[in-house]
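Today's session is about reading a structure prediction critically. Students often jump straight to the picture, but the first step is always the sequence itself: look for stretches that repeat, for charged clusters, for runs of hydrophobic residues. Only then move on to the predicted structure, which in these notes is written as discrete structure tokens rather than atom positions. Here is the chain we will use throughout the hour.
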Amino acid sequence: MKKVISVLCVGLMLLVSANSVLAADNSLDIEKVAIQTIKNSQNLQTYNKMVDLTKKYYSDASSGAAAMRGLLQYQNSYSTYEQIVFLPIEAKSSMDQYTNNQQVVTNAVRLSAYQAYINLLKANYALNIQQGLMNGFDADYRTAKQQQSLGMVSSSQVRLAEITYLKSQYSYNSAQKNYDSAVMAVNNLMGADLSKQYATLQDNVNPAAQIKSLSDYTAIALASRSEVKNAQSALDADKQEYDYVKAAPTTDYDFAMQKLNYNMDSAQNNLDLAKITVQQSVTTAYKSLDSAMKIMEATKDLDDQAASDYQAAEIQYQTAQMSLQDFDNAKVTKAQADVNYKNAQLDAWLAQAMMNAACGAGYVPPSSSASGAAQSTGANKPASTKPDKPANRG
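Below is the predicted structure for this chain, in token form.
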């Protein structure tokens, strides 16, 4: 008997576990979409391979340079230093820059997933609103026909109720098409079946009520952005080469110092330019964020006003002080205000997410045909997989 009970318990646990898996697979949330999109991104997979190549090149350059170090006692010209001493230094800088840009590409893919899921939430919310309106107007239309049979309303009033219902039906069908397109877009990003549907869409996207100041965001970005880190990496490599030649002069010392000083000056200019570019991009992102926050506040006020107007209209309609048509218009106005406020909340959240990415590594991928990433505005310069041509160098 105990054995039978034990078998039944195991079977029950397996059934519960299977149902949990199915429920999770039939549900979506914004981070799940982002994770699956990152896993499925061909652009990111390509860039990850490039990062692996730079890591291998750095390892090969280091071991090769170590094996050739003995040649320096016979020949120590600047060109020899470039091939033996400087090669692993520049290879490491290139590897670091590609690794930094890897996070930028990841951020870009993540934000594309965020945008797609937010579009889906908007479409789902609008669909639910339109369905509620359509069902309500359908009930009004049926009631009007019953009242007409009792001689309580005229045929023109019934016709107006029918038109209102048909309009709502058209709006619902349009909302359904938008929703279906949004689902397909999300499925495409995740690599799922385009026709797959979901029973639950988690709406856990809530914007913060307050944002930081522009100066705070800028300070964070200057310490985190890949453009600045990459430019600093190139400058550090140049300084390391300069210090090495100062400590162990080459046979063509004057030429070497002239070349190294030029490289450092150029790298410093690139670093200064990177900081200016980051400040400009953060300022642009902040303007978008500030605008999104203000729009959210304004639509909240309009939504509250629409709710108050609807309550007043409902009382007037119930006391025969308002026609059904005018009351239906109040319903539509309230519904549209709800949609506008919801959309503004989602837009504000996305603007905050974009600002967070802008204050991290960044989210504009480096311009590189090999990476297959989105085109850059010029803020991120690609690091080369060849150590003799590191990014951000003169």
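Discussion point for the tutorial: The beta strands are 27-28, 200-201.
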